[in-house]
Amino acid sequence: MLTHQAAYVDHLLATIDEREVDVVLVAGDVYDRALPPVDAVALADDAFARLAASRARVVITSGNHDSAQRLGFNARLADAAGFHLRTHLDRVDEPVLVDDEHGTVAIYPLPYLEPDHVKRAWDLSTRSHQAALTEAMRRVRVDLAARPGARSVVLAHAFVMGGITSDSERDIAVGGVSAVGTDVFDGIDYVALGHLHGRHTLTESIRYSGSPLAYSFSEADHLKGSWLVDLDADGLHGAEFVAAPVPRRLVTIRGHLDDLLHDPGHAVAEDAWVQATLTDAVRPLQAMARLQVRFPHVVALQFAPPEAADRAGRAATAGRSDHEIALAFVAEIRGTPATEAESDLLRDACEACSGDHEGDHKVGA
Hints:
Elements: H1 2-18, E1 23-27, H2 38-52, E2 57-61, H3 68-71, H4 75-79, E3 83-86, E4 96-100, E5 103-110, H5 115-122, H6 129-145, E6 151-157, E7 159-160, E8 179-180, E9 190-194, E10 200-203, E11 206-208, E12 225-232, E13 235-243, E14 250-255, H7 257-262, E15 273-278, H8 287-294, E16 298-303, H9 307-315, H10 322-334, H11 340-354
Parallel strand pairs: 1-2, 2-3, 5-6, 6-9, 7-8, 9-11, 14-15, 15-16
Antiparallel strand pairs: 4-5, 10-11, 12-13
Helix pairs in contact: 1-2, 5-6, 10-11
């Protein structure tokens, strides 16, 4: 996906110039893991350099996928270049100040607040996302109160009630609870949220922009992009969604393998990322390889045989030994029976697993 991510960076830089953007806000995640691949770091480095050279100030927080320590390295040095990386708890009440014709905008970047870490660091009585964000916002409001007339913007990486999850986000639940209420941000002119991959408008002043690209097939119907937010003298003036380019669409297809390979109606999927679900009663041999002839970008394959066939497959194991079931599995998947040597190896493995060394272990259901 690196080339597609690079295309989004090009789009972002073009939007900054065309729409005269003053500030770019990134509410995490910058990376998808704490130790990102070298190529991803190189792309981020290039993107950061280009953003720093643009007309816009840049404010970035860390998300739950990022390593706050690694992403925040040299943050104070970057501040001097108008490029602000805020990843540590001790700076949540230290705003990035931006001036315009109406005065000052105080931007408070809140990194992902891991409840266990925050509870210890801030000596909180409760371990939860609600407690962590509530304390962070208390500190923000103390600082904001000392800046009369300043308009306020908060970046936060969190799961806020009203958002809808996808398959891409990493679960951040603590004690079964992952969401916080929108009221924690009361009194803030605009709140830019990160974490959820779909764009959501929770209130007029609290929004998720979502991820710039789709990262799972649950996002196939998402419109990706970013919010272009205007602040005037009184605070929030309006927000417009700017759609991002779609280098390759996501398409899900379903049916018998032969139908998927020959039905002209599936031509739209030939240049897309594809998730295929096969409904054949018998699992076709080399299904992925055969699909890739027509759909070179198929990346996910599922099997959903008719319920009757699935029941018949389960019933066929009744009364058969582990060894017999293993031999049948090999024959079905490979299309040819196991050799005598393979059969002996499978028997030894079954006996070792069952603990029954006197003979085959019978399956009762």
